[in-house]
Design a protein that fits this description.
The structure is a single chain. The protein is globular and about 50 Å long. It is of the alpha/beta class. The protein has one domain: Alpha-Beta Barrel (TIM Barrel). It has a five-stranded parallel beta sheet, with helices on one face. It has a three-stranded antiparallel beta sheet with strand order 6-7-8, with no helix packed on it. It contains eight helices and eight strands, in the order αβαβαβααβαββββαα.
Length: 288
């Protein structure tokens, strides 16, 4: 659930084109609670709150508690730049986990990507705080620029005590577009396979990266109607056909989004230790 388009950072690769001028969109807190209720009726096992930056939404705590009340496990994907004290209390609840992105061990390099001075230290300190509180945490390293210190970032995270570290390359989506190579080539092949994304205006996509493939809107239809709808079935069939015909590639060295032998092993009901969006292979590049 992409609950806001607002974010204190202006990351150069942001797929959602989020930033300080973004908004919480047309979806009200009541709308989000209804989506959570409908998700529970459909048997959804995990909900991920993303943005934008989900911690800037005034009712994030209420939404997390709403999901937990249905027995739905929760992941909050945050830049961890600023976490209010009351949110730490929510994040320590059983069934909640955190995820964040980290770009380099060097503050200057990290902040050249995030667009905000001081963001490296804040994220690093809050990674340490999450670990201190024993909150389950995964960290993704996104390789964007030549010379980026991704190996050193991984080493630093390991030294801090992070055990779940993922790697991805730049996706040509949103502000990440560099060469014009967009579309299904930027997807992993698991879109709409046990996962859907809901935007701040209620639009539903098969994946946060597949924003050109809307399959409905939760402000106009129930989630159950969208899941059973012909539009989603058609998009799912089209993506399945596309990836069945796509050439197989290897996982290393670049860890491409779609690689026939490099899918995350994640069933329809993702376990707590599985990325619920599953739109990246869980592999690291070889050390340079």
């Amino acid at each position: 659930m992409e609950i806001t388009g607002k974010c204190p950072l202006t990351c150069v690769h942001c797929y959602a084109d989020s930033g300080p001028r973004g908004s919480h969109g047309a979806m009200t807190t009541r709308d989000w609670c209804r989506v959570i209720d409908e998700s529970a009726k459909l048997g959804i096992g995990m909900a991920q709150f993303i943005g934008g930056e989900p911690t800037v939404h005034p009712d994030l705590a209420r939404l997390v508690n709403q999901a937990l009340g249905h027995g739905i496990e929760v992941e909050v994907y945050s830049n961890l730049v600023h976490v209010r004290s009351e949110l730490w209390d929510v994040f320590t609840r059983p069934g909640v986990r955190l995820a964040t992105s980290y770009y380099a061990d060097d503050a200057t390099q990290h902040e050249a990507i995030t667009g905000r001075q001081g963001s490296h230290a804040r994220t690093r300190n809050n990674i340490i705080e999450a670990l201190r509180r024993s909150i389950p945490l995964r960290v993704g390293i996104v390789d964007i620029d030549d010379g980026q210190r991704v190996d050193e970032a991984r080493d630093e995270l390991v030294a801090l005590g992070v055990h779940e570290i993922g790697y991805d390359r730049l996706r040509q989506v949103g502000r990440g577009i560099r060469t014009g190579t967009t579309g299904a080539t930027q997807l992993c092949g698991n879109c709409a396979s046990g996962v859907l994304a809901v935007s701040p205006d209620g639009t539903v996509w098969p994946c946060v990266f597949a924003r050109w493939l809307p399959v409905g809107n939760v402000r106009e239809q129930s989630l159950a109607e969208i899941v059973a709808g012909q539009r989603l079935q058609g998009v799912r069939a089209g993506l399945t056909k596309y990836f069945a015909l796509a050439p197989a590639t290897t996982c290393d060295p670049r860890c491409e989004p779609y690689t026939a032998g490099c899918h995350p092993e994640c069933g329809p009901a993702c376990s707590p230790r599985c990325d619920p969006v599953s739109c990246r292979p869980n592999c690291l590049p070889p050390r340079r």
